[in-house]
Backbone:
């Protein structure tokens, strides 16, 4: 199985660049890029397990806290954006409830951003050095060694083919694995573009549902169940509609997009 090494190295290079130029203010776009490139790096490393490369495992252990810290900030950015879009179409008590919720999320976002900022400051430079070494090892790897290591996509494909009946409780985990498989398949030049598009749709549609799910659960904790019932009911309606669309997209991939 032929692997595009240039594509495999791309998230390594992009993450190193992001860690080199850490902005004073962690804007949503920067946080999103850090999280995305960290995920792509993890998928690449899982797909290309070079023989006896224990340093790759250690690298992933150090990337994971960065990805999770960026994820906490990114989750708040997404939820704040959705709440503000809802507030634009509401008046009175409903709008006030959403604005209060925005203030709560902004405070939580600032706290999470502080943790991410400290991690970038303390670990950014040594992590860049390890990323550079990992990229060099990938460049020097023999083509046969890389090809023989590409068992992960096949294993993940079989796992998704035999996934239990999709429902709200296991849809998010299915999306995570489908997104990782998509990253892996992008490394293989012969992968059908229609298959990649199908996985991309699951990533987007199921991700949209999960964002609304998180927002509904967060609002349920922060808002008053009686005074703010109209807002909470509307959040439930949106989340349910997004769930139906996500299940349809995931089932379509499971039945049609996992064939080799």
Residues:
């Amino acid at each position: 199985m032929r692997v595009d090494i240039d594509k495999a190295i791309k998230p390594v290079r992009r993450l190193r660049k992001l860690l080199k130029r850490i902005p004073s203010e962690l804007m949503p776009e920067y946080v999103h890029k850090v999280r995305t490139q960290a995920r792509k790096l993890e998928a690449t490393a899982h797909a290309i397990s070079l023989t006896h490369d224990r340093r790759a495992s250690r690298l992933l252990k150090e990337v994971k806290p960065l990805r999770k810290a960026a994820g906490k900030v990114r989750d708040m950015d997404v939820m704040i954006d959705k709440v503000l879009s809802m507030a634009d179409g509401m008046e009175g008590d409903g709008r006030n409830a959403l604005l209060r919720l925005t203030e709560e999320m902004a405070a939580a976002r600032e706290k999470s951003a502080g943790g991410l900022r400290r991690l970038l400051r303390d670990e950014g430079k040594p992590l860049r050095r390890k990323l550079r070494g990992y990229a060099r090892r990938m460049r020097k790897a023999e083509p046969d060694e890389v090809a023989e290591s590409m068992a992960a996509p096949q294993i993940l494909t079989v796992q998704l083919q035999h996934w239990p009946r999709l429902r709200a409780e296991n849809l998010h985990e299915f999306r995570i694995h489908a997104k990782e498989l998509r990253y892996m398949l992008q490394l293989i030049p012969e992968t059908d573009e229609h298959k990649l598009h199908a996985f991309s749709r699951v990533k987007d549609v199921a991700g949209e549902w999960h964002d609304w799910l998180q927002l509904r659960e967060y609002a349920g904790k922060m808002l008053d169940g009686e005074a703010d019932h109209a807002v909470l009911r509307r959040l439930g309606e949106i989340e349910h509609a997004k769930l139906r669309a996500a299940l349809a997209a995931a089932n379509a991939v499971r039945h049609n997009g996992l064939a080799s």
Remarks:
- The mean pLDDT is 90.
- The CA atoms of residues 201 and 249 lie 7 Å apart.
